[in-house]
Amino acid sequence: GRPAVRLISDNTYTHGLFILDLNHMPYGCGTWPAFWLLGPDWPSNGEIDIIEGVHTSMTNTISMHTDANCTIAGSGQSGLFTNSNCDSAANDNSGCGSIANDTATPNNYGKGLSDIGGGVYITEWTSAYVRVWFFPRERIPSSVTDGSPDVSQFGLPMANFQGSCDIDSHFANHSIIINTDFCGAWAGLAYSSFGDCPLSPGRNGYDSCVDYVGNYPRNFTQAYWEINSIKVYQ
Q1: Quick check: is 52 catalytic?
Q2: CA within 20 to 30 Å of 130's CA: 64, 139, 218, 219, which one?
Q3: Which of 47, 124, 138, 226 is catalytic?
């Protein structure tokens, strides 16, 4: 196998505007990268997954995970709404959220994002909502480039977590986390559904993922993050 990598911020945050500027992110068979925010005593202080996906996916999954009694409406966004119930005990902990709309925001994940030189992911967390935008490098709003981000310039978000959920009672004191996992619960179970990821003879998808990660280190040259900056405005 290969060791997973996880970086966790020393500071914690409640509310803010979080701007990740990246040139490249991990992708390829066996990978499960994520950029996310996590509170203590999960799930009581919430989890916000800003960038997440597996293997050779070209589409970002944006989700939130909480304890009971947090639902969102799924409106006011460009992303494709998947689930309204954020409760981690429901729906096999899939959380509430959306997948990116590749027509509205192409090259938002994986190889596509890396091939265009990346861009910025912006997350706005307030008492009323959590919103996520992605801008490829050539479309980054001028206020972001100038260091005085103005959310009124950003337009329709990729994901809009807003509804009957009381944000402040479910989200607090979050660390910023960047990690690259291999196989595991999502990537291992989903491995066989990716036709470009090889199966081991006589082995199921999960075990084939483990075999691939362990036996082909030369195939992980793209499994890295290249980050210019992470800025938090409060």
Answers
A1: yes
A2: 139
A3: 47
